[in-house]
Amino acid sequence: MEKLKSSLYQAELKKIHKVIAETPKNHKLCSKCQDRGIIIVDNAAVQCSCVKHRNLYKKLKYANMTKEMQCYNFAKFNFDYYSQTLIDTLSNRYSYRQLAELALNAAKKFVEDIIQAKENTGLLLSGPVGSGKTFLAGCIANELIEQQMEVLFVVVPDLLDEIKETYNKNGEFTEVQLMQKLREAEILILDDLGVHNYTTWTQNKLYSIVNYRLNNKLPTIITSNLSLAEIEEVLGERTTSRIIQLCKVYRLLVEKDIRHVKYLNINKG
Fold this sequence. Notes:
By secondary structure, the protein is α/β, with parallel strands linked by helices. The protein is 49% helix and 12% strand. A 5-stranded parallel beta sheet has the order 4-5-6-3-7, sandwiched between helices. The longest helix is centred in the first third of the chain and has 20 residues, at 2-21.
């Protein structure tokens, strides 16, 4: 069922990009509704399919994800990368495969809860580089976007640069506008919270975002190659405390970087 749903969504994406490729430079009116958004079927007015395509595209554009990431889905999550024999040293209980199963199930439940308007404020997906954290976050984003929800996906190092850029008078947003967008996003994904050059200024900005979303119970996904102890070292106790309150923590562990494994498999022979 998941593979069928995935195939249908990929087909939908192709239609969306085809429709939008003509907009606005070479825009052509919809052949069905002439851009009115309504067609007549059996003497009744119904919404034209182009409306759904354009609305979905707007949400994909707002989400700020690459075209590659827009193709991520749960059906493509491959357990072959996660060892069934290696054991997580922190828990001394779960294999890498079992940790991946727990994380995948948590991601699916997060999506289900949000769709059903149940409270589920967030997930922290931690693990080394190339362990599937961003992939899983992208799967969550696409599932929710398909349900016409607004997801904002931001890479933390790029975000911090973007906030600094607001001090340039020619910037697209002011700092207030950008911070408001991040704080109030319907679903926010903060990707790659890692070891960066965090100053007091950047620590305060991240605290402001996380604290606001915690206080307002806004769903948030965070991915990081750091443990909670390491996050506390770079962001401080108060921000880490808010993250723990906001997010349930799951780990993804791999023996080898998945990206490297895929690259080697592609270039074999």
